[in-house]
Design goal:
The strands form four sheets. The protein has an eight-stranded mixed sheet with strand order 5-6-4-14-15-16-13-17. The protein has a six-stranded mixed sheet with strand order 8-2-1-12-19-18, covered by helices on one side. A three-stranded antiparallel sheet has the order 9-10-11, with helices on one face. It is of the alpha/beta class. The structure holds flavin-adenine dinucleotide.
Length: about 375
């Protein structure tokens, strides 16, 4: 089976690798370079704990999180790329945490290592934390990695597994005839395929709109800062109003804004000021660190903030994998697996109804 993947972000590259391993002939079309957009802009947090442990989204996130240790080992063995996988855990000051999460149910999942820290334990673990913070939750199962390296590792592993990576190649149209996908058009060339996987991140709606099919995916801009973190002031990730993530490469990442700003590629004074102010509240001594870089990226967002995964109704052979919003790095391994199962006609082992592309149409019909 010949599969054409539109988009060479983390989702497109991870899916391409998995599809190639399942025996498909795969070509990835990426208009820039692998990971050029959101997948490089991200912070690389693998933090599946959200409001509740028993939603289908939580199950999806947990399933992907569980795949990560093996993904990291496998990519390192195939490519030699160290993705800087850090497993020390995240400290959530409780004032922020209590407001937005039900840790109770997650605490029952032993592998997450959820612990309540009192004042003394907290400041022993992270002496640089503000003395105003007296209680926190440590989630040892929160991990993080270098997502720029990860997407390159996926792309290299995919190429080594036989995937053709066409970079600098813009897809302008999907070709559908008699209710079946036939391929796609890049600038000046028609390419035939048995299946198309649309994984074009925040831009995924554009190609669908061009064929009169409504897929509402919008960009949600995120701004980030990297401080030079030598000598380091933190060893854990600290997550309050913002997160501070120490990377082995010697940077401390501060992120991230979530903004409705269209595709305006700008780092703003307000965005940076807000991130820094919130960071100072958590760890006052970061004031003295120098700013290494700032950037922004566009998260792919669907109206219910959930990923959009699965076959597009009414077009045989067209599959969608987008809308990963704040969790695309975390969700890449399970997305790759699910999309491969769908495309190759295997049975799925997870409840996916909440993520199907036709859910918005179904809801408006029943409203
Ligand atoms: C600031 C920030 C922080 C984040 N932090 C985290 C985090 O800590 N953990 C986490 O799990 N997630 C995080 N995310 C979210 C995560 O980055 C995204 O969910 C994920 O990268 C989406 O991957 P993707 O492959 O769908 O999209 P993208 O990485 O945007 O890839 C889509 C690709 O498609 C290409 N493309 C688009 N249109 C076409 C076309 N017509 N033809 C050819 N190519 C095309 C683009 O060039 C792009 O490379 C963060 C995002 C941001 C912005």
């Amino acid at each position: 089976m010949k599969v054409l993947v539109v988009g060479g972000g983390i989702i497109g590259c991870a899916a391409a690798l998995e599809l190639a391993r399942a025996g498909c002939r795969v070509t990835v079309f990426e208009r820039a370079t692998p990971g050029a957009e959101a997948s490089s802009a991200a912070a690389g947090l693998l933090a599946p704990i959200d409001d509740s442990a028993d939603t289908n989204f939580a199950q999806l996130a947990l399933a992907s999180w569980r795949l990560y240790p093996e993904v990291v080992r496998d990519l390192q063995a195939r490519t030699g790329i160290d993705v800087e996988y850090v497993t020390r855990g995240t400290i959530y000051p409780t004032s922020a945490t209590e407001r937005r999460r039900d840790v109770g149910a997650w605490a029952d999942i032993a592998e997450f290592g959820v612990e309540l820290l009192d004042d003394e334990e907290l400041h022993r673990l992270e002496p640089a934390l503000s003395p105003k913070i007296s209680h926190a939750i440590l989630v040892k199962g929160d991990h993080w990695l270098n997502n720029q390296r990860l997407v390159l590792a996926y792309a290299q592993a995919a190429a080594a597994a036989g995937v053709e990576l066409r970079t600098g190649c813009n897809v302008t149209r999907l070709v559908v005839e008699a209710g079946k996908i036939r391929g796609l058009v890049t600038e000046g060339e028609r390419v035939e395929g048995d299946a198309v996987l649309l994984a074009a991140g925040a831009w995924s709606g554009e190609l669908m709109a061009a064929m009169g099919a409504p897929l509402r995916i919008e960009p949600r801009r995120g701004q980030m800062i990297a401080l030079a973190h030598v000598p380091p002031v933190l060893t854990h990730c600290v997550h309050g109003e913002v997160y501070l993530t120490p990377r082995p490469s010697g940077e401390l990442l501060i992120g991230a804004t979530v903004e409705r700003a269209g595709f305006m590629r700008a780092v703003t004074a307000e965005g940076i000021a807000g991130l820094l102010q919130a960071a100072f509240e958590l760890v006052p001594s970061v004031r003295g660190l120098s700013i290494a870089r700032t950037w922004c990226g566009f998260r792919p967002w669907a109206p219910d903030s959930l990923p959009v995964l699965g076959p597009w109704p009414g077009v045989d052979g067209l599959f969608i994998a987008t809308g990963h919003f704040r969790n695309g790095i975390l969700l890449a391994p399970i997305t790759a697996r699910l999309m491969t199962e769908w495309i190759t006609g295997k049975e799925l082992n997870l409840p996916v109804k909440d993520f199907l592309p036709d859910r918005f149409a179904r809801r408006s019909r029943t409203a």
